[in-house]
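Deliverable D4.2, example record:
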Amino acid sequence: MLRALEEAGIRPDLIVGTSVGAFNGSVVAADAGSGAVQRLTDLWTEIAGAQLFASGIGQRIKNLAFMRPAIHSSDQLRDMLQSLHGADTRIEDLRIPFQCVASSIESATEHWFTQGPLVDALLASSAIPVLLEPVEIEGEHFYDGGLVNSIPIDRAIDLGATRVFALQVGRVEVPLRPPRRLHEAALLSFEIARRHRFRTGIRRLPGDVELHVLPSGNPLEFDDRRQLKWRDTSTTSALIDAAYRASRDYLEKEGLL
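Output generated by the structure prediction step:
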């Protein structure tokens, strides 16, 4: 998606992100030039080869047996982010204004990180429940921002954006349907909760705001079993290419390319 936007000459004045969108957005915010797209492509391709969640099955079983709150440690993510940005980089050091959101456990609300240590904020924004433990920052604990604001177009608009490009991962492209099996009922409930904020934001979109939701090239059904294979990154390159082609086609259709 970023490659297609770059080819169309569309560059951001503001970046807001959730979870992996915060990861990617922070790299773009740090490097306002064309290098960010290649840097991200290299990063995710390398992760596909190295396996980001590479802890052994013994450690994962141990975590479950001792009833720990997460299957994986966030140490590998922290190392990756520190190698990208440096351990001491702060949000306000980035070249493009950047914010990311996380879910506060104590207040049960969204929390926007607008300043302070960048790596801590990114880890908080991407702390997927069950997979990763909550991130503690100044005595408050945070889970993944997708729980409260998965596609934060409303935040961008509140900050003054009048032209918004939403880069999403394919969930909102597929209509929901009633569950057919017991486990689907739980998945569907979570998906409704995730989409509600986004759909509400679109309905309340101010008339002077131009919104573009870029296609992923990989629409996901709410019960898609691939979502449970979080350690399988074998299709990373194919997903990147599919998103590029779909987004380029969309921008051409909209007369933006």
